[in-house]
Amino acid sequence: MKELFSKPAAGGIIEKIVDGEVFVLIQERCKGNVHEDGLIEIPAGKIREFENIYDCLRREILGGFH
């Protein structure tokens, strides 16, 4: 079955301020079993057909922690 998408992609820039210093969440690029050494990215991914954009961002951001 072909997966359909409503928009190309969504990305999230997550900031946290600690003692006045701003930190931005980044993750190492890893697709499937392929780890691409040295490549980093912000959490982002394709929005599935009829998927809420916030659900997409939760999926992509939480997926970076596994």
What keywords describe this structure?
alpha+beta, two-stranded antiparallel sheet, single chain, about 70 residues, about 15% helix, two-stranded antiparallel ribbon
Can you put this structure into words, describing what you see?
With 66 residues, the protein is an alpha+beta fold. The protein is 17% helix and 50% strand. It contains one helix and six strands, in the order E-E-E-E-E-E-H. It has one helix at 53-63, and strands spanning 5-11, 15-18, 21-24, 27-31, 34-41, 44-48. The strands form three sheets. A two-stranded antiparallel ribbon has the order 1-6. A hairpin with a 2-residue loop joins strand 2 and strand 3 (21-24). The protein is flat and about 50 Å long. The model has no long low-confidence stretch (mean pLDDT 82).
Percent strand equals: over 45%
Number of helices: 1
User: Uncertain segments of ≥5 residues (pLDDT<50)?
Assistant: none
Please provide the count of β strands.
6
Q: Which percent bin holds the helix content?
A: 10-25%
Mean pLDDT reading: 82
Estimate the global geometry from the Cα principal axes: flat
The biggest beta sheet reads: 2 strands, antiparallel
Radius of gyration: 14 Å
The first-to-last residue Cα distance is: 26 Å
**Protein structure class:** alpha+beta
Instruction: List SSEs in N-to-C order.
Output: EEEEEEH
Q: Strands across the major sheet, in which order?
A: 1-6
